Amino acid sequence: MKIIIGLGNPGLKYRATRHNVGFMMVDMMATYYQKKWTLSKPMKCETCELAIDGEKVILVKPLTYMNLSGQAAIAIINFYKVPLKDVLVIYDDLDLEVGCYKIKPTGSSGGQKGMKSLIDCLGTQDIQRIRIGITSVEKPDKEETIDYVLGKFSKLDKAKIDALKIASLLWAEDFVRLSFDELMNKYNRKCGL
């Protein structure tokens, strides 16, 4: 069994914001596999179950709001008794340009509060992740970080994110099929600001 957790904030207000790219990626996976989300109040998340090459994959969207994402993550991981090597987290990253991503097996939160919550709750930085770039070349230098991450993508940037949503389907399939080193070697490429 594999678990793929997309980070974001629940509710229509946040749906299309930069901070919700993790939700966008797992929503794309659910749509592609024609599966519906189920509310799990005890675990503070929505889940969606699908199969890739016969392996069960649980998609997760924490409903705790970004800064408390670890609460839902630890609840779902403990419920299914899945080792961390079978968990993948997808989230937004201000250090990467829109359209770029980085697949990593470990590391700090880099200031991303949802990832910090996961690291705190799980007690380790060894959490496999895909960081999705959200910083636009159009970003005003003086715009407050919170205003920026809770803002919406420009038309050009949205097109880049839509392309990554398609790529997320390949990431999910290969997360099941390949070792994590193979996944990184296949998809990581130089990209940045």
How many angstroms does the end-to-end distance come to? 36 Å
Task: Give the strand content.
Answer: 15-25%
Give the radius of gyration: 15 Å
Structure class: alpha/beta
Order of helices and strands: EHEEEHEEHEHHH
CATH superfamily: Peptidyl-tRNA hydrolase
Judging from the principal axes of the Cα atoms, what is the shape?
A: globular
Instruction: Give me the oligomer status.
Output: single chain
Model description:
The protein has 193 residues and is of the alpha/beta class. The protein has a single domain (2-187), classed as Peptidyl-tRNA hydrolase (Rossmann fold), CATH 3.40.50.1470. Helix content is 36%, strand content 24%. The protein is built from six helices and seven strands. A hairpin with a 2-residue loop joins β3 and β4 (55-62). The radius of gyration is 15 Å and the shape is globular. The N and C termini lie far apart (36 Å).
Topology:
Elements: E1 2-6, H1 21-32, E2 38-40, E3 45-52, E4 55-62, H2 69-80, E5 87-97, E6 101-104, H3 113-122, E7 129-135, H4 145-149, H5 155-177, H6 180-187
Parallel strand pairs: 1-4, 1-5, 5-7
Antiparallel strand pairs: 2-3, 3-4, 6-7
Question: What's the gist of this structure?
Answer:
The protein is of the alpha/beta class and 193 residues long. It has helices at residues 21-32, 69-80, 113-122, 145-149, 155-177, 180-187, and strands spanning 2-6, 38-40, 45-52, 55-62, 87-97, 101-104, 129-135. The longest helix is centred in the C-terminal third of the chain and has 23 residues, at 155-177.
